[in-house]
Write a structure and sequence with these properties.
Number of helices: 10
Radius of gyration: 23 Å
Shape: globular
Oligomer: single chain
Number of strands: 27
Length: 553
Protein backbone atom coordinates (compact mmCIF):
# COMPACT_ATOMS: atom_id res chain seq x y z
CA UNK A 1 0.00 0.00 0.00
CA UNK A 2 1.15 3.57 -0.57
CA UNK A 3 -0.42 6.88 0.37
CA UNK A 4 -1.39 9.54 -2.12
CA UNK A 5 -2.30 13.12 -1.29
CA UNK A 6 -5.67 14.64 -2.03
CA UNK A 7 -6.44 18.33 -1.42
CA UNK A 8 -5.90 18.71 2.35
CA UNK A 9 -6.36 14.97 2.90
CA UNK A 10 -4.25 11.84 3.27
CA UNK A 11 -5.65 8.68 1.69
CA UNK A 12 -4.28 5.18 2.00
CA UNK A 13 -5.94 2.65 -0.30
CA UNK A 14 -6.41 -1.03 0.45
CA UNK A 15 -5.59 -3.50 -2.25
CA UNK A 16 -9.14 -4.15 -3.42
CA UNK A 17 -10.53 -0.63 -3.92
CA UNK A 18 -9.97 3.07 -3.66
CA UNK A 19 -12.67 5.74 -3.72
CA UNK A 20 -12.29 9.34 -4.78
CA UNK A 21 -13.52 12.18 -2.55
CA UNK A 22 -16.87 12.25 -4.30
CA UNK A 23 -17.59 8.70 -3.25
CA UNK A 24 -17.35 7.30 -6.79
CA UNK A 25 -15.35 4.11 -7.05
CA UNK A 26 -11.96 4.29 -8.73
CA UNK A 27 -11.67 0.52 -9.15
CA UNK A 28 -14.80 -1.02 -10.69
CA UNK A 29 -15.78 -4.01 -12.76
CA UNK A 30 -17.02 -3.74 -16.33
CA UNK A 31 -20.29 -1.87 -16.73
CA UNK A 32 -22.08 0.25 -14.13
CA UNK A 33 -21.87 -2.11 -11.16
CA UNK A 34 -18.94 -1.82 -8.75
CA UNK A 35 -16.73 -4.79 -8.11
CA UNK A 36 -17.91 -6.38 -4.87
CA UNK A 37 -15.46 -6.21 -1.94
CA UNK A 38 -14.12 -9.56 -0.75
CA UNK A 39 -15.40 -11.14 2.48
CA UNK A 40 -14.60 -9.06 5.55
CA UNK A 41 -11.46 -10.01 7.42
CA UNK A 42 -10.03 -8.44 10.55
CA UNK A 43 -6.91 -6.32 10.14
CA UNK A 44 -4.37 -5.29 12.75
CA UNK A 45 -4.97 -1.84 14.25
CA UNK A 46 -2.11 -0.42 12.17
CA UNK A 47 -3.40 -2.01 8.97
CA UNK A 48 -6.91 -0.76 9.67
CA UNK A 49 -5.60 2.78 10.18
CA UNK A 50 -3.83 2.47 6.82
CA UNK A 51 -7.23 2.19 5.10
CA UNK A 52 -8.39 5.53 6.53
CA UNK A 53 -8.51 8.95 4.97
CA UNK A 54 -8.20 12.06 7.15
CA UNK A 55 -6.98 15.66 6.82
CA UNK A 56 -3.29 16.28 6.34
CA UNK A 57 -1.37 16.52 9.61
CA UNK A 58 -3.76 14.29 11.54
CA UNK A 59 -3.10 10.68 12.46
CA UNK A 60 -4.60 7.97 14.64
CA UNK A 61 -2.65 5.84 17.08
CA UNK A 62 -4.04 2.88 19.02
CA UNK A 63 -3.96 3.36 22.79
CA UNK A 64 -5.95 0.25 23.75
CA UNK A 65 -6.93 -2.78 21.69
CA UNK A 66 -7.90 -6.42 21.97
CA UNK A 67 -7.13 -8.53 23.97
CA UNK A 68 -7.34 -5.91 26.73
CA UNK A 69 -10.84 -4.87 25.59
CA UNK A 70 -13.62 -6.49 23.58
CA UNK A 71 -16.67 -4.77 22.09
CA UNK A 72 -15.99 -1.33 23.66
CA UNK A 73 -18.85 1.16 23.38
CA UNK A 74 -17.85 4.14 25.54
CA UNK A 75 -15.08 5.46 27.78
CA UNK A 76 -14.83 7.81 30.75
CA UNK A 77 -11.82 9.22 32.61
CA UNK A 78 -11.52 9.81 36.33
CA UNK A 79 -9.63 12.71 37.92
CA UNK A 80 -6.33 10.83 37.72
CA UNK A 81 -6.74 10.06 34.03
CA UNK A 82 -7.61 6.39 34.48
CA UNK A 83 -9.79 5.22 31.61
CA UNK A 84 -12.94 3.19 32.21
CA UNK A 85 -14.30 1.25 29.24
CA UNK A 86 -17.82 -0.14 28.94
CA UNK A 87 -17.59 -3.43 27.06
CA UNK A 88 -20.76 -4.96 25.59
CA UNK A 89 -19.31 -8.44 25.31
CA UNK A 90 -22.57 -10.15 24.28
CA UNK A 91 -23.54 -7.67 21.55
CA UNK A 92 -24.47 -9.50 18.34
CA UNK A 93 -22.30 -12.57 18.69
CA UNK A 94 -24.07 -13.81 15.56
CA UNK A 95 -26.78 -12.53 13.22
CA UNK A 96 -29.51 -13.78 15.58
CA UNK A 97 -28.16 -12.07 18.70
CA UNK A 98 -27.62 -15.37 20.48
CA UNK A 99 -26.74 -14.97 24.16
CA UNK A 100 -27.22 -11.22 24.13
CA UNK A 101 -29.03 -11.13 27.48
CA UNK A 102 -26.35 -13.00 29.39
CA UNK A 103 -24.79 -10.84 32.16
CA UNK A 104 -21.17 -11.38 31.20
CA UNK A 105 -20.22 -7.89 30.04
CA UNK A 106 -18.02 -5.56 32.06
CA UNK A 107 -16.43 -2.19 32.75
CA UNK A 108 -12.65 -2.38 32.62
CA UNK A 109 -10.13 0.12 33.99
CA UNK A 110 -6.85 1.04 32.32
CA UNK A 111 -3.99 3.09 33.72
CA UNK A 112 -0.90 4.75 32.36
CA UNK A 113 1.34 4.23 35.38
CA UNK A 114 4.47 5.99 34.08
CA UNK A 115 2.93 8.88 32.13
CA UNK A 116 4.23 7.84 28.71
CA UNK A 117 0.76 7.85 27.14
CA UNK A 118 0.49 4.05 27.00
CA UNK A 119 -1.99 2.18 29.18
CA UNK A 120 0.03 -0.52 30.90
CA UNK A 121 -2.16 -1.63 33.82
CA UNK A 122 -5.48 -3.33 33.06
CA UNK A 123 -8.10 -4.53 35.52
CA UNK A 124 -11.74 -5.62 35.37
CA UNK A 125 -13.36 -2.92 37.47
CA UNK A 126 -16.95 -4.25 37.40
CA UNK A 127 -17.82 -7.67 36.03
CA UNK A 128 -20.89 -9.78 35.18
CA UNK A 129 -22.90 -6.84 33.84
CA UNK A 130 -25.73 -6.82 31.32
CA UNK A 131 -24.54 -4.70 28.41
CA UNK A 132 -23.32 -1.58 30.35
CA UNK A 133 -24.38 1.65 28.66
CA UNK A 134 -24.02 4.43 31.23
CA UNK A 135 -20.78 5.68 32.83
CA UNK A 136 -20.07 8.76 34.95
CA UNK A 137 -16.89 9.04 36.96
CA UNK A 138 -17.26 10.95 40.24
CA UNK A 139 -14.29 11.14 42.63
CA UNK A 140 -13.01 7.69 43.57
CA UNK A 141 -16.41 6.37 42.56
CA UNK A 142 -18.19 5.78 39.27
CA UNK A 143 -21.85 5.50 38.31
CA UNK A 144 -22.65 2.54 36.05
CA UNK A 145 -25.97 1.80 34.36
CA UNK A 146 -26.88 -1.42 32.56
CA UNK A 147 -29.36 -2.43 29.87
CA UNK A 148 -32.99 -3.20 30.81
CA UNK A 149 -32.97 -1.08 33.95
CA UNK A 150 -33.07 2.59 34.90
CA UNK A 151 -31.40 1.86 38.23
CA UNK A 152 -28.01 3.52 38.67
CA UNK A 153 -25.37 2.15 41.02
CA UNK A 154 -22.25 3.77 42.42
CA UNK A 155 -19.19 1.50 42.34
CA UNK A 156 -16.02 2.10 44.32
CA UNK A 157 -12.60 0.50 44.60
CA UNK A 158 -11.78 0.97 48.29
CA UNK A 159 -8.43 -0.84 48.41
CA UNK A 160 -6.78 0.48 45.24
CA UNK A 161 -6.45 -2.80 43.36
CA UNK A 162 -8.41 -1.55 40.34
CA UNK A 163 -11.43 -3.76 41.10
CA UNK A 164 -14.61 -2.35 42.65
CA UNK A 165 -15.53 -3.85 45.99
CA UNK A 166 -18.42 -1.53 46.90
CA UNK A 167 -21.73 -1.24 45.05
CA UNK A 168 -24.47 1.13 46.25
CA UNK A 169 -27.83 1.93 44.69
CA UNK A 170 -27.82 5.68 44.01
CA UNK A 171 -30.96 6.15 41.89
CA UNK A 172 -33.87 3.71 41.73
CA UNK A 173 -35.38 4.08 38.30
CA UNK A 174 -36.88 0.60 38.07
CA UNK A 175 -36.86 -1.98 35.29
CA UNK A 176 -37.37 -1.09 31.62
CA UNK A 177 -37.79 -3.11 28.47
CA UNK A 178 -37.64 -2.63 24.74
CA UNK A 179 -34.91 -3.03 22.20
CA UNK A 180 -31.44 -2.33 23.57
CA UNK A 181 -30.87 0.29 20.85
CA UNK A 182 -33.73 2.32 22.33
CA UNK A 183 -32.51 2.68 25.90
CA UNK A 184 -30.71 5.51 27.71
CA UNK A 185 -27.04 6.30 27.32
CA UNK A 186 -24.78 8.81 29.08
CA UNK A 187 -24.23 10.32 31.61
CA UNK A 188 -22.92 13.90 31.31
CA UNK A 189 -22.35 16.18 34.31
CA UNK A 190 -23.15 19.46 32.60
CA UNK A 191 -22.09 23.02 33.41
CA UNK A 192 -25.36 23.61 35.30
CA UNK A 193 -24.57 20.61 37.56
CA UNK A 194 -27.44 18.67 36.04
CA UNK A 195 -26.66 15.07 35.07
CA UNK A 196 -28.11 14.27 31.66
CA UNK A 197 -28.72 11.14 29.61
CA UNK A 198 -30.51 10.29 26.39
CA UNK A 199 -34.18 9.26 26.31
CA UNK A 200 -35.02 10.34 29.87
CA UNK A 201 -37.59 13.08 30.52
CA UNK A 202 -35.65 13.99 33.64
CA UNK A 203 -32.20 14.94 34.77
CA UNK A 204 -30.48 14.06 38.02
CA UNK A 205 -28.23 15.91 40.41
CA UNK A 206 -26.44 15.29 43.67
CA UNK A 207 -28.28 16.61 46.67
CA UNK A 208 -26.58 18.11 49.75
CA UNK A 209 -26.12 14.69 51.32
CA UNK A 210 -25.09 12.91 48.12
CA UNK A 211 -28.59 11.66 47.38
CA UNK A 212 -30.04 11.52 43.85
CA UNK A 213 -32.40 14.40 43.07
CA UNK A 214 -34.72 13.90 40.09
CA UNK A 215 -35.94 16.91 38.07
CA UNK A 216 -38.35 16.64 35.15
CA UNK A 217 -37.25 18.13 31.84
CA UNK A 218 -38.46 17.76 28.21
CA UNK A 219 -37.61 14.60 26.27
CA UNK A 220 -34.38 15.20 24.38
CA UNK A 221 -34.58 12.93 21.31
CA UNK A 222 -31.02 11.64 21.76
CA UNK A 223 -30.07 8.01 21.23
CA UNK A 224 -26.42 6.98 21.60
CA UNK A 225 -23.79 9.47 22.70
CA UNK A 226 -23.84 12.70 24.69
CA UNK A 227 -21.69 15.81 24.99
CA UNK A 228 -21.79 19.46 26.03
CA UNK A 229 -20.17 22.59 24.65
CA UNK A 230 -18.17 25.24 26.49
CA UNK A 231 -21.36 27.12 27.34
CA UNK A 232 -23.13 24.15 28.91
CA UNK A 233 -25.55 23.23 26.14
CA UNK A 234 -26.00 19.45 25.96
CA UNK A 235 -25.93 18.05 22.42
CA UNK A 236 -28.04 15.10 21.29
CA UNK A 237 -27.81 13.01 18.12
CA UNK A 238 -30.50 10.68 16.81
CA UNK A 239 -29.85 7.58 14.72
CA UNK A 240 -33.27 5.96 14.45
CA UNK A 241 -34.82 8.85 12.51
CA UNK A 242 -31.73 9.30 10.31
CA UNK A 243 -31.57 12.97 11.30
CA UNK A 244 -28.22 13.41 13.04
CA UNK A 245 -28.05 16.21 15.65
CA UNK A 246 -31.43 17.19 17.12
CA UNK A 247 -32.83 20.00 19.30
CA UNK A 248 -29.59 21.99 19.40
CA UNK A 249 -31.01 25.52 19.16
CA UNK A 250 -31.36 25.94 22.89
CA UNK A 251 -30.67 24.03 26.08
CA UNK A 252 -33.03 21.07 26.29
CA UNK A 253 -34.49 22.28 29.60
CA UNK A 254 -36.40 24.87 27.55
CA UNK A 255 -37.92 22.26 25.25
CA UNK A 256 -37.45 21.00 21.72
CA UNK A 257 -37.10 23.61 19.02
CA UNK A 258 -36.12 23.32 15.38
CA UNK A 259 -35.27 26.44 13.38
CA UNK A 260 -35.60 26.97 9.64
CA UNK A 261 -32.35 26.60 7.70
CA UNK A 262 -30.44 25.15 10.66
CA UNK A 263 -28.51 22.91 8.25
CA UNK A 264 -26.19 24.41 5.65
CA UNK A 265 -26.03 22.77 2.24
CA UNK A 266 -26.58 19.00 2.00
CA UNK A 267 -25.69 18.40 5.62
CA UNK A 268 -27.37 14.98 5.90
CA UNK A 269 -25.55 13.61 2.84
CA UNK A 270 -22.54 11.47 3.75
CA UNK A 271 -19.46 10.65 1.69
CA UNK A 272 -18.03 7.25 2.72
CA UNK A 273 -15.45 5.20 0.86
CA UNK A 274 -16.48 1.81 2.26
CA UNK A 275 -18.59 -0.12 -0.25
CA UNK A 276 -20.20 -2.83 1.87
CA UNK A 277 -23.95 -2.16 1.45
CA UNK A 278 -25.02 -3.35 4.93
CA UNK A 279 -27.55 -0.61 5.63
CA UNK A 280 -30.82 -1.58 7.26
CA UNK A 281 -32.80 0.67 4.90
CA UNK A 282 -31.74 -1.25 1.80
CA UNK A 283 -30.73 -0.11 -1.69
CA UNK A 284 -32.54 3.22 -1.38
CA UNK A 285 -29.85 4.38 1.04
CA UNK A 286 -27.03 3.58 -1.37
CA UNK A 287 -25.34 5.18 -4.36
CA UNK A 288 -24.69 3.07 -7.47
CA UNK A 289 -21.21 2.27 -6.12
CA UNK A 290 -22.74 0.87 -2.89
CA UNK A 291 -21.60 3.75 -0.66
CA UNK A 292 -24.07 5.09 1.91
CA UNK A 293 -25.79 8.27 0.73
CA UNK A 294 -27.17 9.87 3.92
CA UNK A 295 -27.28 9.61 7.73
CA UNK A 296 -28.52 6.32 9.11
CA UNK A 297 -26.62 5.48 12.34
CA UNK A 298 -25.30 8.80 13.68
CA UNK A 299 -24.03 8.49 17.25
CA UNK A 300 -21.19 8.94 19.74
CA UNK A 301 -20.86 12.72 19.49
CA UNK A 302 -18.30 15.03 21.06
CA UNK A 303 -17.93 18.79 21.00
CA UNK A 304 -14.15 18.89 20.86
CA UNK A 305 -12.91 21.08 23.70
CA UNK A 306 -9.28 19.99 24.00
CA UNK A 307 -6.09 22.03 23.63
CA UNK A 308 -3.77 19.60 21.83
CA UNK A 309 -5.30 19.62 18.35
CA UNK A 310 -5.60 22.56 15.92
CA UNK A 311 -7.57 25.57 17.11
CA UNK A 312 -10.04 25.35 14.23
CA UNK A 313 -11.26 21.96 15.51
CA UNK A 314 -12.24 23.30 18.93
CA UNK A 315 -15.97 23.79 19.34
CA UNK A 316 -16.70 21.57 16.33
CA UNK A 317 -19.28 18.81 16.73
CA UNK A 318 -17.90 15.39 15.83
CA UNK A 319 -20.01 12.26 15.61
CA UNK A 320 -19.76 8.77 14.17
CA UNK A 321 -21.62 7.11 11.33
CA UNK A 322 -20.64 3.45 11.89
CA UNK A 323 -22.67 2.10 8.95
CA UNK A 324 -20.72 4.49 6.71
CA UNK A 325 -17.44 3.73 8.48
CA UNK A 326 -16.82 7.46 8.94
CA UNK A 327 -16.69 10.38 11.38
CA UNK A 328 -18.44 13.64 10.53
CA UNK A 329 -16.88 16.97 11.46
CA UNK A 330 -19.49 19.69 11.87
CA UNK A 331 -18.75 23.39 11.93
CA UNK A 332 -21.13 25.15 14.31
CA UNK A 333 -22.00 28.80 13.61
CA UNK A 334 -24.59 31.19 15.02
CA UNK A 335 -26.33 33.77 12.83
CA UNK A 336 -28.95 36.10 14.32
CA UNK A 337 -29.27 33.79 17.27
CA UNK A 338 -29.85 30.67 15.13
CA UNK A 339 -27.35 27.82 15.39
CA UNK A 340 -26.42 26.34 12.02
CA UNK A 341 -24.50 23.17 11.17
CA UNK A 342 -22.32 22.42 8.15
CA UNK A 343 -20.17 19.51 6.99
CA UNK A 344 -16.65 20.92 7.09
CA UNK A 345 -15.75 19.00 3.91
CA UNK A 346 -18.94 19.19 1.87
CA UNK A 347 -17.26 21.13 -0.94
CA UNK A 348 -14.80 18.24 -1.29
CA UNK A 349 -17.55 15.59 -1.02
CA UNK A 350 -15.63 14.16 1.89
CA UNK A 351 -15.62 13.52 5.65
CA UNK A 352 -13.25 14.13 8.56
CA UNK A 353 -12.26 10.46 8.90
CA UNK A 354 -13.43 7.62 6.66
CA UNK A 355 -12.17 4.10 6.03
CA UNK A 356 -12.50 1.33 3.49
CA UNK A 357 -12.00 -1.30 6.22
CA UNK A 358 -15.52 -2.79 6.57
CA UNK A 359 -14.92 -3.55 10.25
CA UNK A 360 -14.18 0.06 11.25
CA UNK A 361 -17.16 0.85 13.47
CA UNK A 362 -16.66 4.10 15.39
CA UNK A 363 -19.40 4.41 18.02
CA UNK A 364 -18.16 7.03 20.49
CA UNK A 365 -15.74 9.91 21.02
CA UNK A 366 -14.51 11.98 23.95
CA UNK A 367 -12.19 14.90 24.59
CA UNK A 368 -9.42 13.30 26.64
CA UNK A 369 -7.44 14.59 29.64
CA UNK A 370 -4.35 14.88 27.41
CA UNK A 371 -6.15 17.40 25.18
CA UNK A 372 -6.61 15.08 22.21
CA UNK A 373 -9.67 13.19 20.98
CA UNK A 374 -10.24 9.52 21.78
CA UNK A 375 -12.30 7.43 19.35
CA UNK A 376 -14.01 4.17 20.35
CA UNK A 377 -14.05 1.66 17.50
CA UNK A 378 -16.11 -1.47 18.18
CA UNK A 379 -14.26 -3.03 15.22
CA UNK A 380 -16.69 -5.73 14.18
CA UNK A 381 -18.87 -6.92 11.35
CA UNK A 382 -22.50 -6.53 12.50
CA UNK A 383 -23.48 -3.15 13.91
CA UNK A 384 -27.30 -3.47 13.93
CA UNK A 385 -29.22 -5.34 16.61
CA UNK A 386 -30.97 -8.65 15.84
CA UNK A 387 -34.39 -7.05 15.40
CA UNK A 388 -33.16 -5.78 12.01
CA UNK A 389 -31.04 -8.75 10.95
CA UNK A 390 -33.68 -11.48 10.84
CA UNK A 391 -33.63 -14.24 8.24
CA UNK A 392 -35.05 -13.04 4.96
CA UNK A 393 -34.14 -9.39 5.54
CA UNK A 394 -31.99 -7.38 3.17
CA UNK A 395 -29.51 -6.72 5.96
CA UNK A 396 -29.18 -10.44 6.76
CA UNK A 397 -28.40 -11.10 3.12
CA UNK A 398 -25.58 -8.55 3.17
CA UNK A 399 -24.20 -9.80 6.48
CA UNK A 400 -23.88 -13.32 5.13
CA UNK A 401 -22.60 -12.22 1.73
CA UNK A 402 -19.69 -10.37 3.34
CA UNK A 403 -19.09 -12.70 6.31
CA UNK A 404 -19.76 -9.87 8.74
CA UNK A 405 -21.12 -12.29 11.34
CA UNK A 406 -17.70 -13.91 11.76
CA UNK A 407 -15.80 -10.90 13.12
CA UNK A 408 -16.51 -10.39 16.83
CA UNK A 409 -14.68 -10.00 20.14
CA UNK A 410 -12.35 -7.16 19.17
CA UNK A 411 -12.20 -3.44 19.75
CA UNK A 412 -9.86 -0.48 19.42
CA UNK A 413 -9.57 2.88 21.14
CA UNK A 414 -7.62 5.43 19.15
CA UNK A 415 -6.02 8.74 20.03
CA UNK A 416 -6.38 11.41 17.35
CA UNK A 417 -3.08 13.30 17.06
CA UNK A 418 -1.80 16.18 14.97
CA UNK A 419 1.78 16.64 13.84
CA UNK A 420 2.03 20.11 15.43
CA UNK A 421 0.96 19.08 18.94
CA UNK A 422 2.05 16.73 21.69
CA UNK A 423 -0.47 15.26 24.18
CA UNK A 424 -0.74 17.09 27.49
CA UNK A 425 0.25 16.02 30.99
CA UNK A 426 -1.46 13.28 32.95
CA UNK A 427 -3.84 14.65 35.61
CA UNK A 428 -3.54 13.86 39.32
CA UNK A 429 -6.65 15.66 40.52
CA UNK A 430 -7.75 12.99 42.99
CA UNK A 431 -4.49 13.59 44.88
CA UNK A 432 -4.88 17.38 44.89
CA UNK A 433 -6.60 19.89 47.16
CA UNK A 434 -9.80 21.85 46.43
CA UNK A 435 -7.68 24.99 46.04
CA UNK A 436 -5.81 23.31 43.20
CA UNK A 437 -9.11 22.27 41.63
CA UNK A 438 -10.15 25.94 41.53
CA UNK A 439 -7.03 26.67 39.46
CA UNK A 440 -8.04 23.96 36.98
CA UNK A 441 -11.25 25.90 36.23
CA UNK A 442 -9.01 28.08 34.03
CA UNK A 443 -7.41 25.18 32.16
CA UNK A 444 -7.57 25.44 28.33
CA UNK A 445 -8.83 21.83 28.08
CA UNK A 446 -12.56 21.58 28.81
CA UNK A 447 -12.14 18.12 30.37
CA UNK A 448 -10.03 19.61 33.17
CA UNK A 449 -12.52 22.40 33.83
CA UNK A 450 -15.50 20.03 33.90
CA UNK A 451 -13.73 17.56 36.17
CA UNK A 452 -12.55 20.24 38.60
CA UNK A 453 -16.07 21.67 38.89
CA UNK A 454 -17.55 18.22 39.43
CA UNK A 455 -15.05 17.43 42.20
CA UNK A 456 -15.64 20.78 43.93
CA UNK A 457 -19.41 20.29 43.97
CA UNK A 458 -19.13 16.67 45.11
CA UNK A 459 -16.69 17.60 47.90
CA UNK A 460 -18.84 20.59 48.97
CA UNK A 461 -15.70 22.33 50.15
CA UNK A 462 -16.82 25.84 51.17
CA UNK A 463 -13.29 27.01 52.02
CA UNK A 464 -12.72 27.81 48.33
CA UNK A 465 -15.77 30.10 48.02
CA UNK A 466 -13.68 33.33 48.22
CA UNK A 467 -11.42 32.10 45.40
CA UNK A 468 -14.44 31.13 43.34
CA UNK A 469 -16.07 34.51 43.93
CA UNK A 470 -12.92 36.28 42.75
CA UNK A 471 -12.85 34.15 39.59
CA UNK A 472 -16.58 34.76 39.03
CA UNK A 473 -15.99 38.51 38.73
CA UNK A 474 -13.23 38.41 36.11
CA UNK A 475 -14.39 39.99 32.87
CA UNK A 476 -11.45 38.86 30.77
CA UNK A 477 -10.95 37.66 27.22
CA UNK A 478 -11.72 34.04 28.15
CA UNK A 479 -15.07 33.83 29.93
CA UNK A 480 -15.08 30.07 30.40
CA UNK A 481 -13.35 30.10 33.83
CA UNK A 482 -15.87 32.68 35.00
CA UNK A 483 -18.77 30.49 33.88
CA UNK A 484 -17.38 27.49 35.74
CA UNK A 485 -16.88 29.58 38.87
CA UNK A 486 -20.46 30.86 38.78
CA UNK A 487 -21.97 27.41 38.32
CA UNK A 488 -19.64 25.85 40.89
CA UNK A 489 -20.85 28.40 43.43
CA UNK A 490 -24.42 27.54 42.46
CA UNK A 491 -23.67 23.85 42.97
CA UNK A 492 -22.24 24.60 46.41
CA UNK A 493 -25.27 26.68 47.38
CA UNK A 494 -22.97 29.67 47.85
CA UNK A 495 -23.86 31.94 44.92
CA UNK A 496 -24.66 35.53 45.90
CA UNK A 497 -27.23 37.54 43.93
CA UNK A 498 -24.63 40.29 43.46
CA UNK A 499 -22.52 37.95 41.35
CA UNK A 500 -25.53 37.15 39.17
CA UNK A 501 -26.21 40.87 38.67
CA UNK A 502 -22.58 41.39 37.64
CA UNK A 503 -22.87 38.48 35.19
CA UNK A 504 -25.94 40.13 33.62
CA UNK A 505 -23.75 43.14 32.80
CA UNK A 506 -20.72 41.21 31.55
CA UNK A 507 -19.11 42.06 28.21
CA UNK A 508 -19.37 38.46 26.94
CA UNK A 509 -22.89 37.48 25.82
CA UNK A 510 -22.32 33.93 27.06
CA UNK A 511 -21.79 35.23 30.60
CA UNK A 512 -24.95 37.32 30.33
CA UNK A 513 -26.82 34.20 29.18
CA UNK A 514 -25.48 32.29 32.19
CA UNK A 515 -26.58 35.17 34.40
CA UNK A 516 -30.11 34.84 33.05
CA UNK A 517 -30.16 31.10 33.70
CA UNK A 518 -28.89 31.63 37.23
CA UNK A 519 -31.34 34.48 37.88
CA UNK A 520 -34.34 32.41 36.83
CA UNK A 521 -33.47 29.93 39.60
CA UNK A 522 -34.04 32.73 42.12
CA UNK A 523 -37.12 34.41 40.67
CA UNK A 524 -40.72 33.19 40.85
CA UNK A 525 -44.15 34.64 40.00
CA UNK A 526 -44.35 36.37 43.39
CA UNK A 527 -41.22 38.44 42.84
CA UNK A 528 -41.61 42.21 42.67
CA UNK A 529 -41.06 43.85 39.31
CA UNK A 530 -38.69 46.22 41.10
CA UNK A 531 -36.50 43.42 42.44
CA UNK A 532 -32.93 43.71 41.04
CA UNK A 533 -32.90 40.24 39.46
CA UNK A 534 -36.30 40.83 37.84
CA UNK A 535 -35.12 44.14 36.42
CA UNK A 536 -32.06 42.36 35.08
CA UNK A 537 -34.19 39.72 33.40
CA UNK A 538 -36.48 42.29 31.81
CA UNK A 539 -33.57 44.45 30.69
CA UNK A 540 -32.06 41.52 28.82
CA UNK A 541 -35.05 41.56 26.46
CA UNK A 542 -33.43 44.64 24.91
CA UNK A 543 -29.91 43.17 24.72
CA UNK A 544 -27.99 43.86 21.52
CA UNK A 545 -27.06 40.19 21.11
CA UNK A 546 -29.90 37.99 19.74
CA UNK A 547 -28.69 35.01 21.76
CA UNK A 548 -29.19 36.93 25.00
CA UNK A 549 -32.60 38.15 23.90
CA UNK A 550 -33.71 34.61 23.07
CA UNK A 551 -32.50 33.41 26.47
CA UNK A 552 -34.39 36.23 28.16
CA UNK A 553 -37.59 35.25 26.36
Amino acid sequence: MRARLLPAFVLVCPLWSCSAPGGSSVTQSQGNSPAPPPPSKALSPEASIATMEMPSGYRLEPVLTEPHVAEPVMVAFDGNGRMYVAEMRTYMLDADGTGEQQPVSRVSRHEDTDGDGVYDRHTVFADKLLLPRILLTLDDRIIIGETNTDDLYIYRDSDGDGVSDEKTLWFKGGPRGGNMEHQPNGLVWALDNGIYSTYYDYRLRFGPDGEAVKEEIPVNGGQWGLTQDDWGKVWFVNAGNETGPVHFQQHIIYGQFTAPNEHIGQYKVVWPIARVPDTQGGPGQLRPDNTLNHFTATSGQDIFRGDRLPEDLRGNLLFAEPVGRLIRRTRVTVEDGITRLANAYEDQHSEFIRATDPLFRPVNMITAPDGTLYIVDMYRGIIQQANWTRKGSYLREQIEAHDLQKEIGRGRIYRLRHEKFEPGAKPRMLDESPAEWVKHLSHPNGWWRDTAQKLLVLRRELSVVPALEELATRDGADSRPRLHALWTLEGLGALDDKLILRALKASDPQVRIAGLRLAELRVDARASARAPLVRGLLGALKDADPRVTIQAM
